[in-house]
Specification:
CATH superfamily of the largest domain: Crotonobetainyl-coa:carnitine coa-transferase, domain 1
Number of helices: 19
Radius of gyration: 25 Å
């Protein structure tokens, strides 16, 4: 973690993924994140994960993955005394993050209007599936529901396999990152204007900018997305190809890269082939081109081709499964895995680090994810 936001206090009212992923980034950048959890079982993620033993201990792998560096305080916000304690915490806090269903915070009397009267400097961020207003705002939201409604699933796969969901909860994680970005912008706004603000983050909204060229081609050029599977719709040859022992990604997106590819595979005749004369021609004749390349690439291993293409400055790479990704020396060199000793479980685990690297800010160790209510006594007694 980095001691950048270490003078800021965050009240984290979030559950499961999108919200905790946001506050995890704040915690890893040094913020004092106090996780407000309900009695008995706390964050639902404490019960989620592949290990039934950890789930029973309310330390599910889903919880451990994004709650390092935080503190846990148990409060029943429906209880008047606990609500008063929360108000006291809010008076001194800088940021509040919640991901309840829209309307819930008003019922609990912890909405921005109430808290900003107690603390004019407070930054209040609500994360929900579809935002605090709009036709879909009250719709129950899960990642896959939003993948479908935001167009993500419609863009994945082929004509035979479509629609197709992304293999990880992309809407939750993108929503959490969007919230982090907005909170950091709101902190700068507070410096300039000397007051806090309310932030409405919709996971649905967060996904639309991620559609990138697929959306802009439709909006500007009225070009509907094609279902090309692993092929890149902007260029050819650019996609996944078959080798002797597996698969390889190749992205010869530029003419220079295409020419180098032909030289590397010793098929200079393809450079002069009218079917592949330029980018548009190669896209039009993608199927024929891919067939030719696959027949050639099948003769040697993936490693052979990757090494060869590196010499010719052709972007390429092996397609790795998760176990290999996490074992890459590059992953370790970039410090993307954090070994963490959990004394309460008598074991050491690895968690994923946040991505930013800072040139003149030292990265320090981070405290383990908290047990339920671990910091209740210390924090509440300090009130």
């Amino acid at each position: 973690m980095y001691q950048i936001l270490n003078d800021l206090t965050v009240l984290d009212l979030t559950n499961v993924l999108a919200g905790p992923f946001c506050t995890y980034h704040l915690a890893m950048m040094g913020a004092n994140v106090i996780k407000i959890e309900r009695p008995k079982d706390g964050d639902l993620a404490r019960k989620l994960g592949a290990s039934k033993k950890l789930n029973k201990k309310l330390l599910g792998s889903s919880f451990l993955a994004q709650n390092a560096g935080k503190k846990s305080v148990i409060l029943d916000l429906k209880n008047k005394n606990d609500l008063e304690k929360f108000y006291k915490l809010a008076k001194k806090a800088d940021i509040v993050v919640e991901n309840f269903k829209p309307g819930t915070i008003k019922k609990l009397k912890i909405d921005y209007d109430i808290l900003s009267n107690l603390n004019t400097q407070i930054i209040y961020c609500s994360i929900s599936g579809f935002g605090q207003y709009g036709q879909l705002s009250n719709k129950v939201a899960y990642d896959q529901i939003i993948q479908g409604l935001s167009g993500v699933m419609s863009l994945n796969g082929t004509k035979e396999i479509n629609p197709l969901r992304c293999g990880f909860p992309i809407c939750d994680t993108v929503g959490g990152l969007t919230a982090t970005m907005a909170i950091l912008a709101a902190l700068y706004f507070r410096i300039k204007k000397h007051k806090g603000t309310y932030i409405d983050i919709s996971m649905f909204d967060s996904m639309l900018p991620m559609l990138g060229w697929a959306a802009s081609n439709f909006l500007i050029a009225n070009k509907k997305p094609e279902l090309l599977g692993n092929d890149n719709f902007t260029a050819a040859p650019s996609g996944t190809f078959i080798t002797k022992n597996g698969l390889i990604n190749i992205a010869a997106n530029e003419d220079k890269q295409w020419i180098n590819l032909c030289k590397a595979i010793k098929r200079n005749d393809l450079i002069l082939d009218v079917r592949f004369a330029d980018r548009e021609k190669r896209k039009e004749n993608r199927v024929s081109l891919n067939k030719i390349l696959n027949e050639i690439l099948k003769k040697r291993t993936t490693d052979f081709w990757v090494d060869l293409f590196e010499k010719y400055d052709i972007p390429s790479g092996e397609i790795l499964d998760l176990s290999k990704v996490l074992k890459l020396s590059h992953t370790k060199e970039r410090n993307m895995l954090i070994p963490m000793r959990l004394d309460y479980l008598n074991r050491t685990i690895n968690i994923i680090n946040i991505a930013p690297k800072f040139s003149n800010i030292k990265e320090e160790s981070v405290s383990p994810p908290p047990t339920l209510g671990e910091h209740s006594e210390a924090i509440l007694n300090s009130l």
